[in-house]
Specification:
Elements (H helix, E strand, L loop, with lengths): L12 H10 L8 H4 L28 E12 L7 E12 L5 E5 L4 E9 L6 E2 L1 E5 L4 E5 L11 E11 L6 E8 L5 E8 L5 H4 L11 E7 L5 E4 L12 E3 L13 E4 L2 E7 L2 E7 L8 H18 L8 E6 L6 E2 L4 E5 L12 H17 L6 E3 L6 H18 L6 H15 L15 H6 L4 H16 L2 H14 L3 E3 L1 H14 L8 H9 L5 E7 L6 E7 L13 E4 L1 E3 L12 E4 L3 E4 L9 E3 L8 E4 L1 H13 L6 H16 L5 H8 L8 H18 L5 H19 L9 H16 L3 H17 L8 H9 L4 H13 L3 H11 L5 H9 L17 H5 L3 H19 L10 H10 L5 H14 L9 H32 L7 H17 L1
Parallel strand pairs: 1-11, 16-17, 17-19, 20-21, 22-29
Antiparallel strand pairs: 1-2, 2-8, 3-7, 4-5, 4-8, 6-7, 9-10, 11-13, 12-14, 15-16, 18-19, 22-23, 23-27, 24-26, 25-28
Helix pairs in contact: 1-7, 1-16, 4-5, 4-6, 5-6, 6-9, 7-9, 7-14, 7-16, 9-10, 10-11, 11-12, 14-15, 14-16, 16-18, 17-18, 17-28, 17-29, 19-20, 20-22, 21-22, 23-25, 25-26, 25-27, 26-28, 27-28
Length: 957
Amino acid sequence: MQRFVVGVLYLTAAVILAAGPAQAASRALTPPLYRDDNGWFQENPNARVSPRADPDYRLPNTTIPTHYDIDLTTMVHEGDRKFTGIVKIHVTFEEATTSIVLHARQLIITEASIQLDTTDTPEDLEQSYEDEREFLTLARTTNTPFAKGSQGVLTVHYNGELRLDNGGFYLSTYNDTNGNVRHLATTQFESTDARHAFPCFDEPAMRATFTITMRHSPSYKAISNMPVNTMESSPGVTVFQTTPNMPTYLVAFIVSDFEYTEGVLNSLPQRIYSRPGTEGDQEWALVSGMLILERLAEYYGVPFALPKIDQAAIPDFAAGAMENWGLATYREEYMLYNKDHSTITTQTNIANIIAHEYAHQWFGNYVAIQWWTYLWLKEGFATLFSYKATDAAYPEWGIWQQFHTDDYQGALNNDAGVSPRPMTHYVQKPQEISRLYDTVSYAKAGSVLNMWNHALTDTVFQRGLHNYLTANNFSAAVEDKLFTAIQIASKEENYEIPAKIEDMMGSWTHQGGYPLLTVKRNYDDGSFSVTQQAFHNNETINSDKSWYIPFNYATQSNADFRDTEATNYLLNVKSVSVGAKLGKEEWLILNKQSTGYYRINYDEQNWKLIINGLIHHPFKIHPRNRAQLMHDAYRFSASNRLNHAILLEMLTYLPSEVEYAPWSTANGIINIYNRYLGGDNDYKVFQEFVAEIVTPIYEKLGINDVPGEHHYQKFTRNVAINMACLAGINSCLKETNDKLKDLVERDVAIEPNVQSQIYCNGLKQSSNDVFDFVYNKLMDSDDQALRRILINSLGCSQNKQQLDKFVSSSIDHDNELRVQERSTLLSPAYSRGLTGWMACMDFLDKHWDAYGNLNGGFGGTNPLDDAIRGMSSYANNEEQENRLLALVAKVKNSVHASANLEEVVEANFKTNRDWLKSNRDPLMSWLISYRSNGGATLAISTLSMVSVILLVVSHLF
């Protein structure tokens, strides 16, 4: 499941990096990506996790299901939330028992009975229910146990109500072209919500087959995992073909008046469903779906297992998307694409998220996970293949740059806290399970799998995945099954590996965090040593962790970054020497294309050689390495591991940079500095430096979209606009404001691909009339991707009155904000500066309870709790700290606050104070010295000319 569309793919490293020093916890866009290490996860470094007890939330497993007949009736076309159901479950008794224990939630059970295979009449059962574990116990009225090995059909009659929180079997609405409210019923069952739609054995390993019947208005249609059984169906009664055996959380059904577009590739039909009037926006998802599914089946060597696959765009949807087998569901903004109005970001997101959900059709569906402990075993693969499959379908894009800035760097930032949890982590309670949907299960797992994909070669990795899928098909697996499959593949491909796969990969799955590699060169004999230790953002934390680490390297004289296979290993040892013959004046760079999941610190002389190489021949170094060098240097300088001058001197190469990943990374660093230095007396010096490094790329790309240019150049333009306006470059401020005025006053459309930048930077200096125009545009739009842009942009305002109106609208239930949008308004405001922060503070002071009562969807967190955590990450002065602590004192004993809220807030305050204490003076000293030495005195025209020359010359060498 693309639970929160980890990364929200179009975000730049600005926010990702900003999460680092202050451990931001913003829920506004992608909660898991920016969630801090707040004590939810306690590391268990023991290799093989053992279940906890007392109480045990696991079903007793005395009874197992083999087949479900589900019969549901809904009149959702009338807006009626009530539904009724009958479920018949074919069960086998694994042990002698007098009762059957299964799950149910918010259901009224009216009748329960069992028909044993050995009897002719059904037997009524007594029911009891435990709220805490959501256990429905159906017991015999006698003390005679069901015999071990016996079988029967359990029948339960029940009724319930469609939920309003976008979970379980729930109600969604939209306005049709005439402004009338239309209703639909849809599902979101992962991870423990199938039990809301029907009593079931709601655990991922409890696979069974399902035959589903939906009774509904003949004016509506029903769709589910399988094709319709036309022989059994009639108007208002839709019966579906029986599924293969599958987990309950992958069951899905939708009753709606949706329209669809259909395509067929290699005899497999695919459909895109969405509300009427959006059929013209379905084509991109349909084409991408057909291409991506084909590429995945080819890579795995395993055909898609079902006779069809549908995708549906849901108006109200808390997750980003969900991989229901044969019926994937999405937020509208991640499914609908209009070639005239949508952005390149939306186009990229749709392909990437489809690839994520389609990868799940194999990893998670075809082969399930034994328990949520191994969530990474499906989400990590889905994350990795969201890029591998998209790259296979659209190789001209170069999407791996985005993997690097979004998932890889995001994982490194979030996996370096005080006590990071391991990938394999035992949980039981639904709330605990929900909290596993974080960067560890998604971005880190995807990055670790990507590392081994490259280290062992794609040939071995691909063969290993084929082995894993075919050996465990239609069953549930644990990580050892994967390790064994790759081990076998290495033998089949006659590929020598230096240790057992279970030891090498297990060292990454059973302990949290990741290593720091420290490289020291011997400039006399050309050799170098590599030493590992656990990396933490706090450099004072010591650990004895050790990993099996694959690595490789490139040199100035052999700058070939193409082959990413591991040439060397640290095999669970602290240090290794490499007998290279490096020249004294050539740079050394480890980790080609930054595929290894670790950071690398060099001796100062090598850093200087790298900087010299970047300034004079930047394109000899791979763009992802250029990005990561800055990313690592920032983290090292911020944690007292590296002189700030190294990073700042490195940034001076940027006037000759053209690629997205390096610019996105630089933008992230600049945004962190801006966040802390915004109120500094010498802030102008910082702005002048930013202006110097960004002016060439800003002047080169401008603020106007260019049809036909390279895919990620459009992303780079957006970074350049934001940095140029942040630097106070007059042309940027004027041109963005003029574009917004032209839209308001003369209805001159803003090109979709620069909308976000124009709206945000234009609103920083807008009149109330302009602000109200954008605000009303948000309320009137039914384009969810545009709505996200507008929400993020409205928070850019620096006018207190405007921001008061904006944040207050989150609790105004008479406006047109959707359920999942209401808790996303505060973060764009408080993260954009002191004015927005204070507006949010004033709002929460008065309305904290109403905000806490907002429906945050599923995920285990409360909107108020998330907002306070996030705001604490942006509090840089005593007044902010005092006000926020006063709010925490008000709310900490309420149902909205987590137990450790005050502790996290205090920790974030300390982090911010420590950052300023450690970083402000060396940063400003270097910047002032740089300016006084003429670094920032070049005329802009001269700088631009030099930049163009550098770009040309660099490409020649």
